Records
---
Amino acid sequence: MMRRSAGIVAASIAVCAAGAYGQVITFNGPMPWVTQRNDSITVRAQIDTAQLKKKKEITLAVDLVNERLQKKMLAKKTFDVNDYTGEFAFGPVKQNLVGGRSYIRIDWSIPGTTTSKGVISPIGIVALDKLPQPETIAVPHAKEDADAAAVVSSVKEADYKKAGMATLAFAWNKAAFYIILVKQQAPGSVRFAFDGKNGKNAFLSFADRVVMYRPDKDSLTGIHFSPVMMGDTVVYNEKPWPNEFTKSVSGDRIVIRVPWYDTGIIPFEERKMGLGIMTFDAKGQQTAAFPAKADFFLPGTWCDLLLAK
């Protein structure tokens, strides 16, 4: 199981404070789109102290921006600059889970100037050791040549979960992952977002694949999302996901077959992977989820799937 490391990413990428030449400050961490594993904010930078004509200082402000673009200042501090490299620590900001369409933003400026300033964002926080353990769904093993009826029969009544109006269960074998839905005609969609690395990240990434089923239209599509910043807003652009999954019917059950090669996941017994289960209304607003507090755009809130023997 791989988890995205803020430290490794921060060390390999730099955000320049100005143009490619003559920049006053180059930031090495934290970096945009990074998921921090704790709530302590430390800014790491390289500084051309010769260009600090007046005070040898840097002012940093840490803000929490929610999905309604409301900004709450978590910390602000002016630090003395004594060397060409520096670590500026704020300590805990008391935010254990930030992500999806909300994010941490760091504003920086050089006191006494009007042009030496900038923003580092979005930054997410998923402090795994401070959050409840994710709920785990044990997925029963279906026979390798199972048809829709056999897949349904491999699942017990106790295996079914609820997400709003949707009632669902899962099964697997070496060829495919199966989603079993009780028939309904509600408008909107049921979405299943796969995180094969189970990274519990703060932002939905392009690598996270989504199966979307529309009950009222009986339609099945595959999508994934490309996250970008537009001004102060985190936007997830929807992209088509080419796939070969199929849909069958067995009694009052819809069985969606998702070949493993489409997901990029290699299945084996006792493997864990992340899964987001959400329902959306006809206007595209999330209405329910499993677990109940899961956010479609924040994989850190999703449940775990355990491929049972």
---
Amino acid sequence: MQDPAELCRRAADCFYDDPQRSLELFAEAAQTGFPNAFFGIAEMKMSGLLGEPDPAAAEELYSAAAEAGHPPSMYRLGMLFSGAGGHEEIPERSRMWFEKAAEAGMKEAYPEISDICMCGYGGPVDAGKGLRYCRLSADAGDPMSCFKLGCLLSDGIAADKDEMEALRLFRIAAYKGIPEAQFKMGLLAQEGKTSGDDMPAAGWYRMAADSGLAAAKFNLGTLYYEGKGVEKDLEKAFSLYKEVSETGEGDALFMVGRMLMEGLGTEKDPQKGLEYFGRAASAGNPLAIEFLENIGRRQNAQIIKIDGAERPGFAGLVTHF
């Protein structure tokens, strides 16, 4: 019989182009008990290349490989038992297998078990272990883990507060394309907490906004609206607020309404501005709610005066007329 590792390599080479041949090669390698062969067949069962995905058959094969010490199969079992691929969700088993994969040194499992321990999925919350695996994942170069670890250190969660280390981690994650980290760097720049070598707030917000992060678009719009760190540009501000308002975000709806009411960065349209204030109030924006309540009180007072009831105490009777 040929070397099972060589058989698996050849099977992987034709995995997508000739799945039937790939299956034959994996099956031949599996006859030797080679764990990677069981893993390969399981991957085929889940891929749908041979028909409908079969999570139950995949679980059996992954389990055989995992019991033989195969970390990628441990990781896949963690995914399966989290409910992936239509498999039954069993949180305790998902946690167990992700942790086994992490303990075996599979770096892809580090962020998974970190989140699991932090939120208490499939077992008790274990912030210490969550922090440890978050550090390992960040050290392994995972940008989202860098961001998450930065948040933990910035807020002093499960570790001593360390704003300088948090800043370093946010910067790494930001340059590696994590929009939330870019937004965080923008906030820190506005607070004067970044170094002189860093971009100004507008640069960070622009990076995050280009990735579609609504909060970054709103903050960038505010910089243009106020002319802070950038040249004042009300048209750009209005355009950014308008984009965010389409998500139903209350503050953006309010700013669009305000700019329409005053004709700032767009054509003046008080009626449309009032519509946006109404939507902002429905979304919970306190300024919009206060504005509309003030309008309501003024209208009530005018109606009372017209009816000849000028005493303030009669204001509450207007709705009954």
